Each structure stands twice: as C-alpha cells, then as structure tokens.
Amino acid sequence: MQWVDNRLPLPRLVYGAIGGGYPVPRNLNYWWNFGVLAGAALAVQIITGVVLAMHYAANGAVAFDSVEHIMRDVNGGWFLRYAHANGASMFFIVVYIHIFRGLYYGSYKPPREMVWLLGVVIFLLMMATAFMGYVLPWGQMSFWGAQVITGFFSAIPLVGENIRIWLLGGYAPDNAALNRFFSLHYLLPFVIAGVIILHIWALHIPGSNNPEGVDVKGEQDTVPFHPYYTAKDGWGMGVFFLIFALLVFFAPNMLGHPDNYIPANPLSTPAHIVPEWYFWPFYAILRSFTADFILPAKLWGVLAMFGSILILFFLPWLDRSPVRSAKYRPAYRIAFWVLVVDVLLLGYVGGSEATPKFLILGQITAAYYFAHFLIIVPIISRIEKTRPLPNSITEAVLAKHDGHGATRDGAAVPAE
Ligand code: HEM
Fold first, then answer.
1. Of 6, 263, 297, 343, which has the fewest Cβ atoms less than 10 A away?
2. Which residues bind heme b b566 (predicted)?
3. Annotation-wise, does 204 bind a ligand?
4. Considering only CA atoms, which of 33, 92, 35, 125 is closest in space to residue 244?
5. How far apart are the CA of 21 and the centre of ligand 1, in A?
6. 339-355 pLDDT, tens digit each
7. Does pLDDT of 321 surpass 80?
C-alpha cells in the first residue's frame, strides 16, 4: 500500500475520507447513517441500470416490449428491473430522511452551507433523473406523465410552447423524446456521483455536525471513522438491504401504478394521471392553483412547485438562530414536526384525486409549507429562547450516562 501511495496517493485519500484518518464526532446517532445509505442506493441504481440498458430498446415501437422481454426472457431480468424500480423508491426514502435529519439538527447552518446547497443540487438532479427513467418503459403513465410534466413549460408566456416542442423534439412525447430521455437518464446519475464527491469534500472541511449541534473541541470529542462508523454504517446497510429485499421479492409492484403495464396510447388518456409517490407533495403544490390572478393559474402552479424546492437554497440565511440542534430549540422543534406532518399531508393530497375536499387541504398545506420557510422559521430564529448548550460533545455524552456509573466505553463517569 505504501508503494502505491508513494506513486499515486489514493490510499491516503481513502484513509483520510473513510478510514482511521477521519475523526468523527463520537455521538452520531442512526440518522447519520442515511448519507452513506443514499450513496449505496445510487450505486445500486447505476449497477442495475447499466445492465438493464444492455437489453432495453429506446424506440417507441419496441420500448414497452423490450421491458417485457427483460422481465420474461433475460436471465435474472425481472430481478434487475424490480431492483431498479424499487431502488428508486428506496433512494428517495433515504434522501428524504437525510434531508429532514439536516433540518432537525441544523446541518444547513454555518459552516456547512455549501454541503447543504450541493445537497439541494443533487436533489434536483435526482428528480430529473427519476422522471426521465419513468418514461422509458413507455406505458400509459410513462407517456401521460411526460405529457403533463413537459406541459409545464408551455405555461411560460410567449415562448413556452416553443420550448416544450424543442424539449420533446416534437409536438407530443414520441421517439425523439424517448431517445433523449434515455440518453440523459443514463448520463445524469454520473453527474450526481460527481456532485456527491463535491458534497462530501465540502463536508470534510468542517467535519460532520452532530446531535448536540456543538463544535468538536479536541480529540476526546471524536472517534476515528474506521472502525466505529464503518461498523455502524455496515449495520444500517444490512437493515436497508433487508427492507429493499422485502420490496423486491414480496411486493415489487406495490409502489408502482398498474396503468404502466398498459402500452402507451396517445389516443387514450388515463382517468387519473399520477406521478410516482416521491413526487406527490410537489404535485399537490402544482395543483393548488385553480384561479388566474395576474398570471395564469397554471403558471402559478409551476412557479410554486419549483419554488418549493428552490426555497431550500435560501434556508441557511432564512434561519438566523446560532443554535443548530432542535434539541435545544423548543419552538423550532415544534415547527419541525408540524412541517413533517404538513409534507406527509401534501403527499397524501398529491396522490389522491383532485376532489374539492382534497383541493382545499392541498391549498392549506401548500400555503403552510411556504409559511414555514418564509415566515415561521425566520421569526422563531429571532425570538426563540433556546436551552443552554452543553460545553462539549463529551460533556453531553457523559451527562447522558450519568447515574449508570460508566460510559459506553467503560470509562468511569466523573463525580459531579
Ligand atoms: C444522492 C444523494 C446524497 C448522497 C449520496 C449524500 C451523501 C452524504 C454523506 C455520505 C454525508 C455524510 C454522512 C451523513 O451525515 O449522513 C452527507 C452529509 C450531509 N448531506 Fe448529503 N447526500 C445526498 C443528498 C443530500 C441532500 C439532497 C441534501 C439536502 C438537501 C443533503 C445534505 C447534507 C448535509 C447538510 C450533510 C451534513 C450532515 C451533518 O454533518 O450533519 N444531502 N451526505
């Protein structure tokens, strides 16, 4: 290894990134597993995707049949396809938890703003990739999903329709659209992998945040990444693949829509066009605008939908509180949990039919979503009375174990 390192310092890089050379706060809880799990999910998508691409045909006349050929004729093809389709869901579950972990513990705050901003870029790229991937099997939902989503662009005044035709390479989704979506769907995961490298690079400058949200003060507050967090992440990985396997082997179509097993038909619109579950909250925001007000309702919907993600870019500056962890921010903690419920409700509305009842619920929850970031968090961050922070991570860890006589690693607890 020394011989390689002298000629190409790759071993040094690995040792410094995930080896014994990377000191990590000693108190990270299981919510800190999700970054590594997101990386694992991306790896699964790339590996299964590259092999699927060997058998898939991006041509409107045969795309649907080529997927059925993968399911029936290709050795292990059903497994590859189910792993890839459910892998996308697993990826989004993990990343949503990863984002909410950051929101709860204030990981977007200084000095980790760049880690957060790059995370939002990754999230946008993930959404684009997932959308284009869903078009590829060329079923009814693929076709009509593409029709609806590219239809957003025609909401742009004057040039919108031209942009849409340019993006699709035609007046409706067809061969040209399918080909370019396939090309970009293959490309973007590698762009995501590149941005992840930047994401982790930016993280390694200040190092990881932690559940207490206080800075590391000296060696006693950290442990080496290996073996402590390689072991903890390894355990999390086991649970992740167990749940993933349950989906793939026992409920592979649970999260999909049955209409996508009907070949795309431009002459037959499905009764309800719904995107995949991970887009539901955004779909609910899009549908919340029903009346024209200065701008057409459709344009408001599109602006609000993109705005709901873009707003995340400004979060580090909207939340001015110097205290990171919600553990020490009683008011913010309540706002956080209300936001969780709000986003779950938005998801429920986005996946349901647009009846008047759901429309109103969608409008209220969409308005609250924006109020959380633009009004509630800025105000709380100025007036909230935070709880006193521990002096150090070690102090917090020891306090937690006080009364039991010993800390986790067996060291005696200093008497108070
Ligand atoms: C493919 C997607 C992603 C991958 C592979 C990834 C990977 C990672 C890894 C390995 C870590 C360090 C371990 C951890 O803290 O969990 C991390 C930390 C972090 N990530 Fe991500 N991430 C992704 C997406 C995102 C997104 C979408 C956001 C936010 C919008 C985000 C925000 C953060 C933040 C703020 C941290 C620092 C956490 C802390 O130290 O408390 N990440 N990420």
1. 6
2. 98, 199
3. yes
4. 92
5. 20
6. 999 999 999 999 999 89
7. yes
